[in-house]
């Protein structure tokens, strides 16, 4: 886990814990369905930060005979678990609470208490979101949109925190709108509608996270930039005649498996070929430090064989899996 991800998780953890307590106290005072939904939402988010920390720690374990490539994907598994918690404990609960209060509405009490707590929550969540954005900017290219960053990032923590904090800010606005309208109109169903809106928002965010984490769990290729770097490193290595075939896969956020068939100069002796392969691996790791596990198979390009890497697709990357 990068230092930026760790900072974002710590900021989100303490923000959500403090807000969860404040919101629950507000619910006890006011009886607002929106505040109850938001308190459960923040409590779920607090637990989620703990799950992200757990995944980061478990991913550091050394490889074993049963898991020879290590435990890097544990970070994806626990981020997937976060999405499930957000869906069930956050989204479904808020939706259920909203429907129940819509069927049995009651007046929101102590309006100013509810408003004060929700505004406090907006400020604290805003600080957490600002921290996540600031840390994400260290890894996000300026020409990449935030949506594409979330969709294509191989590090699960920052996209999770970004979506959680964005959802929290929007949820607080829904809750604030609901309690104000309930008080102004004297109709408690506005508060219930705010809770239902929070539930639907959290379910939508959870579904996005589930889809993204599923792709990372089952295995995704390196990014286009990393693939280009790997291809260039191989083709520019001494004694390499042709790159025939390439496969990459993320074993974890900062670890890439590279498997390639490469045509070397036919005049090389066995000892020279071995040295040429070693040199090619060194070049790959220099170009893409995350390429830690590399398998290179010497081969001969046949006229009816697969097209070489640079000619296979628009990204000049051969025979590699799609981005998620």
Describe the structure.
- The structure is a single chain.
- By secondary structure, the chain is mainly alpha-helical.
- It folds into two domains: 3-218, Alpha-lytic protease prodomain-like (Up-down Bundle); 224-311, Cation efflux protein, cytoplasmic domain (Alpha-Beta Plaits), CATH 3.30.70.
- 64% of the residues lie in helices and 10% in strands.
- It contains nine helices and three strands.
- It has helices at 3-30, 33-58, 74-103, 111-136, 146-152, 157-185, 189-218, 224-235, 270-287; strands at residues 240-252, 255-264, 291-298.
- It has a three-stranded mixed beta sheet.
- Helix 9 links the parallel strand 2 and strand 3.
- The radius of gyration is 25 Å and the shape is elongated.
- Residues 307-324 have low confidence and may be disordered.
Number of strands: 3
CATH class identity of the largest domain: Mainly Alpha
Strand order, sheet with most strands: 1-2-3
> How much β-strand is present in the residues?
5-15%
Helix content: 55-70%
Shape-level CATH architecture of the largest domain: Up-down Bundle
CATH topology of the largest domain: Alpha-lytic protease prodomain-like
Separate helix tally:
9
**Terminus-to-terminus distance:** 21 Å
Largest sheet at a glance? 3 strands, mixed
Name the poorly predicted regions. Answer: 307-324
Helix-strand blueprint:
Blueprint: H1 3-30, H2 33-58, H3 74-103, H4 111-136, H5 146-152, H6 157-185, H7 189-218, H8 224-235, E1 240-252, E2 255-264, H9 270-287, E3 291-298
């Amino acid at each position: 886990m990068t230092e930026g991800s760790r900072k974002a998780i710590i900021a989100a953890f303490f923000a959500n814990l403090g807000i969860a307590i404040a919101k629950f106290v507000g619910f006890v005072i006011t009886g607002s369905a929106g505040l109850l939904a938001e308190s459960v939402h923040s409590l779920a988010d607090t637990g989620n930060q703990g799950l992200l920390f757990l995944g980061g720690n478990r991913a550091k374990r050394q490889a074993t005979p049963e898991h020879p490539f290590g435990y890097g994907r544990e970070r994806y598994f626990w981020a997937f678990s976060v999405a499930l918690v957000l869906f069930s404990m956050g989204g479904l609960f808020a939706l259920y609470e909203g429907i129940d209060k819509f069927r049995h509405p009651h007046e929101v009490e102590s309006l100013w208490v509810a408003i004060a707590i929700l505004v406090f929550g907006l400020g604290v969540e805003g600080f957490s979101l600002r921290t996540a954005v600031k840390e994400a900017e260290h890894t996000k290219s300026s020409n990449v949109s935030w949506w594409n960053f979330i969709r294509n990032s191989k590090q699960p923590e920052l996209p999770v925190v970004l979506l959680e904090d964005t959802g929290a800010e929007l949820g607080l606005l829904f809750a604030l709108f609901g309690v104000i309208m309930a008080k102004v109109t004297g109709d408690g169903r506005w508060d219930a509608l705010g809770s239902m809106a929070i539930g639907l928002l959290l379910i939508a965010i959870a579904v996005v996270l589930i889809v993204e984490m599923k792709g990372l769990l089952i295995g995704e290729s390196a990014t286009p930039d990393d693939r280009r770097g790997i291809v260039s490193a191989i083709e520019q290595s001494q004694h390499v005649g042709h790159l025939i075939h390439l496969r990459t896969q993320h074993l974890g956020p900062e670890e890439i498996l590279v498997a390639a068939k490469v045509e070397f100069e036919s005049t090389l002796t066995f000892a020279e070929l071995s040295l040429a392969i070693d040199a090619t691996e060194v070049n790959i790791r220099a170009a893409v430090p995350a390429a830690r596990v590399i398998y290179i198979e010497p081969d001969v390009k046949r006229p009816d064989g697969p097209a070489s890497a640079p000619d296979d697709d628009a990204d000049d990357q051969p025979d590699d899996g799609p981005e998620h």
